[in-house]
Amino acid sequence: MTLTVQPHRESVGLKTGQLYLDGQWGPGTGSESWTHRHPATGEEIGEFAIATEADVDAAVASARVAFESGAWSHSRASTRVAVLHRYADLLREHAEELRALQALDNSVPLSFSSTIYATSVGAAADVFDHHAGWVDKLGGETLTPYQGGDHLAMTFREPIGVVAAILPWNAPFLLFAQKVAPALAAGCTIVLKPSEYCTFTVLRMVELLVEAGLPAGTLNVVTGPGDPVGEALITHPAVDKVSFTGSRAVGKHIVEASAGTLKRVSLELGGKSPALVFADAPNVALAAATVVGAVTMGLSGQACVANTRALVHRDVYDEFLGAAQGMAQAMTYGDPFDPGVMASPLINPRQLERVLGYIEKGKAEGARLVTGGERLGGDLAGGNFVAPTIFADVDNHATIAQEEIFGPVLAVVPFTEEDEAVRLANDTEYGLGAGLFTADVQRAFRVSRKLRAGTIGINGFQIEPHLPFGGFKQSGLGREGGKSSIEAYTELKSVYLPLTDEMM
């Protein structure tokens, strides 16, 4: 039997992808298109336009005119609030349709996107509702004159301008919301580029945003690969800010490319996040299931903040490995529309070969393979499936413990003392997230303060709209979520006003 998703494609009714420029949908000026193949089957799912440099120019020009006109940036707070709340409602109303589109785009199972908050449509809706609440709170300050005298010293927060928002493929709902919601709340205009591996979901999200009442030109969409489309965006002189989520290599290139015009930059660049499992963990088996679930279930380890290193106290090491192996072997794969399927394939054949290469590297460097390590065959042979893979007795300096694999591979490292665990956890170039499992509240706070990571989960983990999310070290620049994300899309202006008799 051969796995196929064509019946689902027909039921959803995917249409040819188009650009959205200055309030109009169209094919753009180019003749080239991208054919997207489904990760689970290799079937052709659909095509979308590859934007040209002229299309990018048109998108940026539209966003610039819209920004300067003030139709959105100077609109009443009540107008922006109403549009953002209306959009959140539309997302919830169309949740089933959007989850189906995502399953066709990147093969994330419906069982996962319907139950795991961070990958759900509801999470995106919550982000828009949350940021709608900031629209009428973007105030500055009136300060006491420092040197005395009759004058006012004031600050104002104003939208930064035209934003280039470049999305990854793995979590389109949440990452669309984390970039678009604060930018719109602040009054910016946007040129959006979805990943070529998850375009149809984003196009439908844009259609709903237009339906919610967003003025023409406020949001423009250009589709296609990073080269040439993303490159044209990040180097465009009329773009004021770039917000990007993706690989560290591309992030570094964006910093270099933006230097010529001193663009503001927000980057979330992945991680090699540790989970520290202490001997007094409330439930070692649950800790193992939580860690392995994040590395194998749903996105199959293709998540930037997944705890792909498990640092486990030697007293509970064997117990952890036994539970981890059981969890990994319980994963199910196949049609993402099947409610019994728990995990996705890798996004494309290139990533499949990359992950298999890391697995071979782990073996060669002396780590002990506990389970997995191979490509899945049989009915799944047409897809990019890799079995959940656990390595034990890993040296923390080994390649699989230091580099982001972006696949279902967990490296387990033993430790004896708390200080050793902290040292191992911080011994990486990344610093996006970390988790720790302990029943000792004092240890939880003590270790959390020592870990060099942007988000710490204690006996569990959750991304929430009002909490800032981002990384230390080479995991990126800036934060998304909460007040910090609003500030990232604004400029701070100081105003000095002397008070004369004529003004009094």
Task: Please tag this protein with its features.
504 residues; seven-stranded mixed sheet; six-stranded mixed sheet; 17 helices; 20 strands; 19% strand; globular
What does this protein look like?
Helices cover 37% and strands 19% of the residues. It contains 17 helices and 20 strands. Helix 3 (77-93) runs antiparallel to helix 6 (121-132) and helix 3 packs across helix 8. It comes from Amycolatopsis thermalba. Residues 32-495 form the Aldehyde dehydrogenase domain. InterPro entries: Ald_DH/histidinol_DH, Ald_DH_C, Ald_DH_CS_GLU, Ald_DH_N, Aldehyde_DH_dom.
Q: State the helix count.
A: 17
Main sheet: strands, sense, barrel:
7 strands, mixed
Structural class: alpha/beta
Mean pLDDT: 94
Number of strands: 20
What shape does the CA trace take? Answer: globular
Helix fraction bin: 25-40%
Q: Could you name the ranges where pLDDT drops below 50 across 5 or more consecutive residues?
A: none
The radius of gyration computed from the alpha-carbon positions, rounded to a whole number of angstroms, is: 24 Å
Estimated share of beta-strand residues: 15-25%
Q: Alpha-carbon distance between the termini?
A: 85 Å
Strand order of the largest sheet: 14-15-16-13-12-17-18
